[in-house]
Amino acid sequence: MARSILFVHAHPDDESIGTGATMAHYAAQGAHVTLVTCTLGEEGEIHVPELAQLEAAQADQLGGYRLTELRSALAALGTIDARMLGGAGRYRDSGMMGTLANEHPRAFWGADLEEASMHLVEIMDEVRPQVVVTYDANGFYGHPDHIQAHRVAMRASEIAAERGFGPSKIYWTAMPLSVLKAGVEALADSTDNPFAAVTDVADFPFGTPDEEVAACIDGSDHHDAKVAALKAHATQIPETSWLYSIAGNFGQEFMGVEHYTLAHGVRGRGDGPYGWETDLFSGLPDGSPAAR
């Protein structure tokens, strides 16, 4: 069985922003890359004026449109096996904490954990990933759908393990404090600085001490693919986004390098002062089925 890696994300565009370079990196290597997206992102803001009426409060058609954006983004990243958890529209974008969207009967935040996890178990049984990638327990920055995606990915992995096909390694997306600090400093004099009010990186709801990071994937040769994927999500990421400012000013180093903590499994051999792995399959026999 070839290398198989599964990414679990909350909304269309999360995959490109957080793990786009990693996905492109492994797709180019010939690994089976599966993306499971949990909602259609119906509650997202719209940055394309002529599409404004697609918003939830009006036509409520943004989710379907974002599905087409997702397909275009994944085409830019390479050969990706794309799935929607439970099928497209099974779970709805929950919006932010405390909003009415949280109370929608299909809101992912309110989904039955066992039921949602079983949808993912079915996919895992089919693709047999050795590696699973998702968010940490805080959903990286606290969004309810990200938190729920974490819960579903972890519970599904547990069930899969009980059935003999669980992943050998589980990673959570991370942003090293050193990288976060460098980014804030680099944007200090920018006219489009979203972090202008930040004086201490500890104020962010995310950021991982460097010594707690386990892996650093250098997908900088897929920088252009990641930028193209971001541009495909035009309703969510405006042309004036700080992401593109960073892409233009700091390019491959920032956009193409992604970091992770290891939540489950044995850490493989790494490099640098903290021994960061450079391959999420490090320590696993190439081509082996998921082992437990």
Automatic annotation (TrEMBL):
Which transformation does this protein catalyse, written as a reaction? 1D-myo-inositol 2-acetamido-2-deoxy-alpha-D-glucopyranoside + H2O = 1D-myo-inositol 2-amino-2-deoxy-alpha-D-glucopyranoside + acetate
| Zinc listed as a keyword | yes
Name the Enzyme Commission number(s) assigned to this protein: 3.5.1.103
Cofactor binding remark:
Binds 1 zinc ion per subunit.
Keyword Hydrolase among record annotations: yes
List positions binding Zn(2+).
11, 14, 146
In terms of Gene3D superfamilies, this protein maps to: LmbE-like
Pfam families in alphabetical order? PIG-L
What UniProt keywords are attached to this protein's entry?
A: Hydrolase, Metal-binding, Zinc
Q: Which family does it belong to?
A: Belongs to the MshB deacetylase family.
Q: What does this protein do?
A: Catalyzes the deacetylation of 1D-myo-inositol 2-acetamido-2-deoxy-alpha-D-glucopyranoside (GlcNAc-Ins) in the mycothiol biosynthesis pathway.
* Protein's recorded name: 1D-myo-inositol 2-acetamido-2-deoxy-alpha-D-glucopyranoside deacetylase
Gene name of the encoded protein: mshB
